[in-house]
RNA sequence: GCGGGCGUGGUGGAAUCGGUAGACACAAGGGACUUAAAAUCCCUCGGCUUCGGCCUUGCGGGUUCGAUCCCCGCCGCCCGCACCA
């Protein structure tokens, strides 16, 4: 037995079948044990799984199997984020229907995932493109509509000219579409919106309670929501004012700098601008120019601050003075009021603008220690703290006091029957535009009627199912050009009407799947009691790239579902973990083309590592270590790894070495190292099985030193591994397991005779069983096989976590380092409960200490019980 | 520019309520077994050393009996956001 190599492929298939047949991982909703919901972000069915999936799902499976062994009723489901563009691209390129492309990919990837031996409840599986799923999503849409959480309005949208669809702000990265990479244009379209901004404040403040989320993600969300407190200030306009536009309002977070004002600027899209443009060709031309300016990061960065003087002026609220009104290209319409007052001395943008148009720059905040008679602003605006000056009644006050004083004065003053100032909180977060001009998505369930307007599809008429007979010959939306699908009669007046042909952003699909998993077959979107019993997800694991989009949308959706009565909580994810990427070396041929790892061999010689093509023996350049990607061809196919090494090796390697939140480099040597280690465990367990007494043999209370030492090591490891898994520090857990295996290996090799007696041998068995149980979450197949080699009948997957014997963690004697002036010079071994005086005496008696003291008394001796002794000479 | 994070051997990393720096692994070198290879096992492995020790956690200071850990100032790298008034 011990000499046989472990055959991963045969063993893994066998245990996967056995677990499946015994329904070990099926989860019942009425199980009375405490619940634990572990979820990994579900995959997009692109065709094949990649190493990133292996890492992600290996981590989740460790948590799931561990919690199951600890007695929890674990929910660990899997599904498919199955709507989206690639299916339509495939349809265009390969003449395959998005539906068959998607479901065939799912079938492949399901098999691949199953070969990993994940402890998933496959009975709960669904794809978001299942009619059964998206019909419930349509019901949620209608519920949200009823609750006023959905609106429809004309808006400027980010238009992706390649994908020919609209993108949310969050989906525009550096001015480019997040999927296509094409430069995004601005267009005006009528769009459906989820009113996520209704929850801005709550989404922000609730972040404080998400203490099991990475701080980084919370910070990113805080920045994204972008709360700012300020004042809305009303100004009186003078000059050739258009009819009915006597006032203009600005939003400012710096009312304290009002006395430093030198101009007022309007957005090109401000109503007043529009009114002025109607009679002024010059203004109209300037507005046109602003619109042409791109919104890409590059365009914004290089764009100069430019403006057009309208000839209008505004009156200062406190001073007897007027200031020019400009239309400026840097003022955004959709933030604040679309107008600002410019204080060049204390705002860099305003300063740039003022310099260009030779406007006055009056400093009103004096930095600490600066001289008020000489302080001036040159090229850099002063945005720091200080005392207000040049500001009449504000002089001498702090920035905070001045803000408050101005706010108070203006909100109690009246200008044209309205308060001159209003305190206001602004958010950067905008409503979530969900309309997409695509086929492969969830249809928005509304009907447009010429006489009744927008009419929701009655719930009895759901689902609004996607038609299957569509073509992808041309760009644009196949639903829109389908000959019959969109033609329906109005549910209200029965007149001919048209279906909405936009579908929902696919981020909608992933915003509630975690809730659907709790009752995947329910007629309603959820069964609220069941959802509330399972949610929140105790541990959610996925990539950092979803820090804002998916996670913020899901937080909104949970709140919206609460309003609509589908769940009873606000926050869907109690614990969040963002794992790092899998990276790999890159290789390039002489012609610059990328070469995949499978096509090369590496030679390590005197001159370092060199790589050669397998087919032509031509040398290739070893490049940077980068994220695995198809474009750089530096991917490793999980299926090939699983077929050659086994799933356990792939899982083990993905969990070893690197901390899970950091990137991990896939190397062939690393994989082989993991494989070697698992073979070693197999051999050691085999040898243990030969000399160990039958299962259940009690371990005597009194053991010989060798057995006791080993037993203590096993329990120490048990405690350490449990803690490491709880805190998701898998690399640390694995290192502790390595140590235990080294201890077991050396015990068997060097002290075999010490384990001859049955009692001592029982300790050997106990150690092997603990080892196997500790490895089970990471390498479940090997562990299960070892468990049975050790003679156990019941499946390990159903067995509880080992019982810790706390007494074994306590040593009778402790060896403490002895420092002299902070540097370690010796060790002293004392009874564990020795008092400080005893320890001090023992330490001072040491030869090294005596030598250092040269007969003198120590100045001071610090004894930290059970930790350290420091002698100050 | 703003915000956040990180700098430890050849490499990935371990050790933080301030208490033995370098666990564990990979790579490398040496040895055993073998006709040979694979597999396996054993040893060495931060630097310097006059073999007593000395130096070493990006750099420079500080606090402390004691600093990878706390404080101040630099340097470097990574990530996120960015005309948000």
UniProtKB/TrEMBL annotation:
Gene3D superfamilies reported for this sequence: 2.20.28.290, 3.10.20.590, HUPs, Isoleucyl-tRNA Synthetase, Domain 1
Domain called Aminoacyl-tRNA synthetase class Ia: residue spans: 429-585, 626-666
Motif ('KMSKS' region): 627-631
Species this protein is from: Methylobrevis pamukkalensis
Residue ranges constituting the Methionyl/Leucyl tRNA synthetase domain according to the UniProt record: 38-172
Residue ranges of the motif 'HIGH' region: 43-53
One Gene Ontology term from the biological process aspect of the record: leucyl-tRNA aminoacylation
Top-level EC class: ligase
Family: Belongs to the class-I aminoacyl-tRNA synthetase family.
Protein localization: Cytoplasm
Ranges of residues in domain Leucyl-tRNA synthetase editing: 222-410
EC number(s) from the headed UniProt entry: 6.1.1.4
Protein name: Leucine--tRNA ligase
Reaction catalyzed: tRNA(Leu) + L-leucine + ATP = L-leucyl-tRNA(Leu) + AMP + diphosphate
Protein residues bound to ATP: 630
GO molecular function terms attached to this record: aminoacyl-tRNA deacylase activity; ATP binding; leucine-tRNA ligase activity
Pfam families assigned: Anticodon_1, tRNA-synt_1, tRNA-synt_1_2, tRNA-synt_1g
Gene Ontology CC annotations of this record: cytosol
Coiled coil: none
Methionyl/Valyl/Leucyl/Isoleucyl-tRNA synthetase anticodon-binding domain mapped to chain residues: 711-836
């Amino acid at each position: 037995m011990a000499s046989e190599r472990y055959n991963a492929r045969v063993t893994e298939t066998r245990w996967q079948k056995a677990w499946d047949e015994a329904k070990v991982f099926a989860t019942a909703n009425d199980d009375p044990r405490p619940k634990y919901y572990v979820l990994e972000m579900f995959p997009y069915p692109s065709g094949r799984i990649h190493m990133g999936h292996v890492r992600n799902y290996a981590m989740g499976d460790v948590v799931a199997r561990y919690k199951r062994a600890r007695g929890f009723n674990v929910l660990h489901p899997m599904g498919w984020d199955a709507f989206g563009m690639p299916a339509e691209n495939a349809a265009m390129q390969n003449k395959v229907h998005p539906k068959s492309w998607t479901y065939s990919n799912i079938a492949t990837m399901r098999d691949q995932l199953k070969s990993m031996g994940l402890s998933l409840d496959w009975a709960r599986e669904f794809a978001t493109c299942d009619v059964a799923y998206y019909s419930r999503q349509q019901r949620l849409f209608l519920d949200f509509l009823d609750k006023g959480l959905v609106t429809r309005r004309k808006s400027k949208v980010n238009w992706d000219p390649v994908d020919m669809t609209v993108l949310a702000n969050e989906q525009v990265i550096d001015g480019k579409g997040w999927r296509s990479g094409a430069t995004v244009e601005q267009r005006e379209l009528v769009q459906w919106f989820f009113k996520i901004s209704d929850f801005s404040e709550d989404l922000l403040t609730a972040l404080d309670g998400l203490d099991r989320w990475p701080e980084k993600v919370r910070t990113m969300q805080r920045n994204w929501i972008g709360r700012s407190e300020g004042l809305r200030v009303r100004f009186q306009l003078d000059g050739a004012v258009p009819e009915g536009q006597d006032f203009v309002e600005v939003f400012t977070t710096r009312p304290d700098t009002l006395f430093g004002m030198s101009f007022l600027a309007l957005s090109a899209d401000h109503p007043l601008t529009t009114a002025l443009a109607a009679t002024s060709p010059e203004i109209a031309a300037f507005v046109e120019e602003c619109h042409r300016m791109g919104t890409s990061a590059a365009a914004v960065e290089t764009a100069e601050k430019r403006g057009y003087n309208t000839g209008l002026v505004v009156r200062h609220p406190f001073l007897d003075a007027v200031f020019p009104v400009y239309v400026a290209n840097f003022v955004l319409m959709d933030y604040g009021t679309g107008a600002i007052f410019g204080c060049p001395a204390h705002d860099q943008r305003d300063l740039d603008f003022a310099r260009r148009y030779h406007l006055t720059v009056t400093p009103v905040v004096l930095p600490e220690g600066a001289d008020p008679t000489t302080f001036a602003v040159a090229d850099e605006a002063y945005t720091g703290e200080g005392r207000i000056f040049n500001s009449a009644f504000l002089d001498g006050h702090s920035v905070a006091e001045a803000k408050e004083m101005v706010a108070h004065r203006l909100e109690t003053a009246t200008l044209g029957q309205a308060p001159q100032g209003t305190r206001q909180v602004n958010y950067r977060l905008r409503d979530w535009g969900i309309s997409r001009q695509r086929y492969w998505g969830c249809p928005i369930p509304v009907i447009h009627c010429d006489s009744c307007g927008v009419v929701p599809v009655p719930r009895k008429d759901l689902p609004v199912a996607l038609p299957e007979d569509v073509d992808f010959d041309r760009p644009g939306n196949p639903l829109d050009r389908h000959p019959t699908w969109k033609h329906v009669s109005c549910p209200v007046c029965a007149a001919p009407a048209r279906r909405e042909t936009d579908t929902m952003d696919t981020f909608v699909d992933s915003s509630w799947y975690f809730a659907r998993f709790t009752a995947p077959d329910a007629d309603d979107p959820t069964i609220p009691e069941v959802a509330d019993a399972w949610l929140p997800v105790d541990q959610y694991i996925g990539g950092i790239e979803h820090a804002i989009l998916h996670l913020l949308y899901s937080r909104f959706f949970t709140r919206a579902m609460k309003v609509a009565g589908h769940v009873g909580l606000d926050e869907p994810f109690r614990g969040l973990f963002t794992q790092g990427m899998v990276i790999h070396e890159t290789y390039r041929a002489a012609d610059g083309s990328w070469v995949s790892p499978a096509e090369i061999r590496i030679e390590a010689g005197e001159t370092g590592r060199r790589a050669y093509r397998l087919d032509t023996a031509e040398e290739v350049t070893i490049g940077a270590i980068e994220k695995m990607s198809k474009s750089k061809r530096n991917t490793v196919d999980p299926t090939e790894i699983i077929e050659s090494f086994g799933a356990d090796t792939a899982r083990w390697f993905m969990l070893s070495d690197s901390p899970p939140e950091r990137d991990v480099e896939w190397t062939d040597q690393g994989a082989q190292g993991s494989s070697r280690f698992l073979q070693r465990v197999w051999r050691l367990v085999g040898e243990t099985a030969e000399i160990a007494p039958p299962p259940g043999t009690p371990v005597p209370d009194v053991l010989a030193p060798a057995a006791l030492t080993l037993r203590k090591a096993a329990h120490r490891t048990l405690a350490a591994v449990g803690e490491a898994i709880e805190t998701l520090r898998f690399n640390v857990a694995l290192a502790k397991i390595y140590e235990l295996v080294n201890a077991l290996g050396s015990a068997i090799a060097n002290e075999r005779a010490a384990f001859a007696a049955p009692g001592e041998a029982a300790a050997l068995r106990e150690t092997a069983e603990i080892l196997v149980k500790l490895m089970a979450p990471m390498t479940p197949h090997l562990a299960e096989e070892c468990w049975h080699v050790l003679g156990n009948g019941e499946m390990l997957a159903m067995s509880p976590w080992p019982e810790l014997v706390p007494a074994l963690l306590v040593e009778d004697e402790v060896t403490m380092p002895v420092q002299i002036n902070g540097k370690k010079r010796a060790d002293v071994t004392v009874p564990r409960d020795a008092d400080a005086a005893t320890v001090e005496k023992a330490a001072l008696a040491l030869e090294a200490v005596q030598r250092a003291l040269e007969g003198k008394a120590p100045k001071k001796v610090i004894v930290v019980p059970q930790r350290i002794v420091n002698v100050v000479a």
